[in-house]
Amino acid sequence: MRGRAQLLGLAAWLAISFAAAAVGGLASVRAQDFYVGLEQPGWAPPASVFGPVWTVLYALMGVAAWLVWRERGLGGARGALALFVAQLVANALWTWLFFAWRLGAAAFVEILILLVLIAATLAAFSRVRIAAGALLLPYLLWVAYATALTWSLWQRNPQLLG
Predict the structure, then answer these.
(1) What is the pLDDT of residue 1?
(2) Residue 2: is its pLDDT beyond 90?
(3) Domain boundaries, the chain
(4) What share of the chain is helix, strand, coil (3-state, %, to 5)?
(5) Average pLDDT over the chain, rounded to whole?
(6) Are the C-beta atoms of 117 and 87 separated by less than 8 Å?
(7) Does domain 3-156 have CATH number 1.20.1260.100?
(8) 56-67, pLDDT tens digit by residue?
(9) Nearest Cα to 152, choosing from 35, 57, 47, 55?
(10) How far apart are CA 145 and CA 132, in angstroms?
């Protein structure tokens, strides 16, 4: 592929990643107020941390998908890229379940599914290009942390996350 096609591909994969962020962002318009009102464990991050962390993670996801696409194309990496899109959908859904609909149990089950999808995507990307899988490692670790946080918040706030 030529330089222009590479740049367009990178822009497309970043756009796909950030589109998922935007869908989740719609559900979290008032998330900061809700989050700070929850009884939280001592290890919970301040609300101001989430935006910068997720911005970096979505950028890493887009670059990882681009590396896989660049290596094999859509046809050659169909399964890996389908997993990527599936985990993006699950990622956006969690925000709706937790912040918009305030369904703690559903959000917890869904984030467990998301964790499995991320691990599967990381493994599939690593088989295509090790760097692509490595770029998803911070995302996997953050979502593992978010899984524990989701559980803790749900358990501490059953009246708000019923």
Answers:
(1) 61
(2) no
(3) 3-156
(4) 85, 0, 15
(5) 97
(6) yes
(7) yes
(8) 999 999 999 999
(9) 35
(10) 21
